[in-house]
Amino acid sequence: xxPRDNGHEHGEPVIRxxxxxxxxxxxxxxxxxxxxxxxxxxxxAQAPERAGAAVDGELEAQLAERTADLQRLQAEYTNYRRxxxxxxxxxxxxxxxxxxxxxxxxxxxxxxxxxxxxxxxGFAKVAESLEAAVTKLGLAPFGQKGDPFDPTVHEAxxxxxxxxxxEPTAIEVxxxxxxxxxxxxxxxxxAVAEPEDAPPASDSAASGD
Length: 209
What we know:
Layout: H1 33-115, H2 121-136, E1 139-142, E2 154-162, E3 169-175, E4 177-180, E5 183-186, E6 188-195, H3 201-208
Parallel strand pairs: 2-6
Antiparallel strand pairs: 1-4, 3-6, 4-5
Subcellular location: Cytoplasm
Region (Disordered): 1-55
Family: Belongs to the GrpE family.
């Protein structure tokens, strides 16, 4: 039986024309259905990857937004706690200062009794316990004879001139002052002396003559 004719002689290569333009008509050649199917299959294979990338980007944006919201809420809560703590401390200090102010006349009586030697027996122990309690709460007396006069912490009840001072000076403490921390609960009531004016220069010269 003679061999079947395959349309070409044995050993001759098969040449396929893959040019996209038809040389005879000059028109674009239509891509074969198999090629179109291959391209469609490639597009379908890449579609999930593109969709996944878009979803990942959206999730990252949402995550960043939620993280920023949480950080803002955390900062607001921290500031709120600080304000509450600051207000709580201020309210406590105000209450303690009010109670101590009410006790100042009692402390004045104790001081006068001590100065007159009347602080004895059980009354002395009670007075010492009271003074220790108010000291523990932060109450501290101030005002000493010889202190420079300071109108922010002193109240001048008496005024005079003296050659023994070089600046306005508290020469007598009539009633001690009290403070709690930096807060002055009562100024020290004092007698103040100022330096005497120097004699005029003409008087000095006349006395020298």
